[in-house]
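Supplementary notes for students who missed Thursday's class. We covered one full example, reproduced here. Read the sequence, then the structure, then the short commentary at the end.
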Amino acid sequence: MIARSQRRRWIGFGALIPLAFYVIADGFPSSEWRTFFLSPWYSDPWRLAALIWVGALPLVVIGASAAAAWFDVGLRSSARLVAHPQASRIVGVTFGALFLLAATQGAGAFAGVQYVSTKYETDAAAPLLDNDERALLERLEKHVPEGQVIANNPWNGGALAYAIADREVLVPHTGGKYDPRINEMLEGIAVGTPQACSLSREFNTRFVLDLGTQYVFPETPRAAPYHPISDIDPANASALTEVDREGDAVLYEITGC
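Structure (token representation):
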């Protein structure tokens, strides 16, 4: 219908553009050309999946209008066969509305909400932030002065220090382009190498947050640069002094530089 109509072909293209971006985000590895098309934020296919409906909505409206027209024709034909056609039409429309409501807002929507909510739970085994980690973050403002930056791993919930404790973190998001020297600093900060110490001063970073290696996306290779400050062995952290601890969640101060 749309392909045959020159006036409506733009609607089809509007639906194909976000779909094409989704294919690029989900089907190709990170690269400069992919970032050029998508930017760091939309390199995440989950975000683009939510936007596909923006382009598809006109198609849905046209399809629903056509289906409603066919349904109305069928309803009028069947109404002629019953004693009370007006009542028959009311029952048919009501049934159709309830069916559409159940199909679009029923089990599928409930399952989606349940899946997403598990990613943001805070309990003893939560993938993003467990009870110990949350308790530590809520005490950060007692130890970290305003204006100081915390070295963190964004993949284990460390970036939430900004939201929960109002303290700036070095890497606020898992996506995006950051100064490549951050990786150099993280690599040597536990033992206080001269390069790492120099960079920590340049980045105004005096604290390190270690929330371990339990990630929302387990074993993601994108978390590899942050391994040196995740599950730190105190025996190999001569430049760090433990400031606060809750279970396995630890806040260190850089004291060996």
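Commentary. The first helix runs from residue 9 to 27. The CA atoms of residues 137 and 156 lie 13 Å apart. If anything here is unclear, bring it to office hours.
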